[in-house]
Amino acid sequence: MPGGGSSDSASGSEVESLERTDPEFMERYLNFAYDDVIRQGAAEGEPLDDRTRFMAILATLLGCQGVDEFRDLLPAALNMGVTPVEAKEIVYQAVDYLGMGRVRPFLDVTNAVLAERGVKLPLPSQASTESTEESRLAGGTERQVEIFGERMRDFPNAGPADRRHINRWLAANCFGDYYTRGGLDNAQREMITFCYLAAQGGVEPQLIAHAGGNLRIGNDKAFLIKVVSACLPYIGYPRSLNALRCIDEAAKTQA
Questions:
Q1: What tens digit of pLDDT does each residue of 139-168 get?
Q2: Spatial distance between the Cα atoms of 56 and 60, rounded to a whole number of angstroms
Q3: Which class for 151: exposed (0-12), middle (13-18), buried (19 or more C-beta within 10 A)?
Q4: 110: number of CA atoms within 13 Å, CB side?
Q5: Closest by alpha carbon to 225, among 37, 94, 61, 4?
Q6: pTM for the full model?
Q7: Of 85, 69, 10, 77, the residue nearest 50 (C-alpha)
């Protein structure tokens, strides 16, 4: 494959089939995705390391519902240093941003790929909160404060009374059930959330908010642009350009 070899490319049977049926298209696509994009990252001085790049791509494929490409790229991601725990955490966290209806096929694919590689399932527990609402709410609120600032301290009790339960769920479920888990740190979790949102499109307010969260905890503007660049072949130009605009909007509020 251009620009990286079999371990750094989509080398599954579906790609091999396309190379037989659509050789001209695949030559252009692979030259772009595995040569132009990789060389641009290297030209920027501090490219994304392979593990981070593949974590971003896996999250992006969840966001755009690219389950076939996910199936092909997950083995390459594991070869490039993404651990089984990290892969599972990327899938688990997606449920709060995409819904179980869209994530279930990816969970099944991940389990199948890990089983094929001899990984014993279930993996060791990564939970750090108790199952009680109080524990989940407290842990989730702390994560929200760490990422978005002290203004999130009272978020579960803010807003109109008839929808305040959604705020509590956001703190206890989204952040308390997932962001408090081991396997990924806050910066990695905010990066993959940014990728879910950028890839699915139509959620620009949330994308701006999470671009801001990334900036606040150290994933700077240059890093986020590198993430968008790495993921562009999988989501196309319109959503990538939207993501860049949202980064710019978030950066204005951080200045």
A1: 999 999 999 999 999 999 999 999 999 999
A2: 6
A3: exposed
A4: 25
A5: 37
A6: 0.93
A7: 77
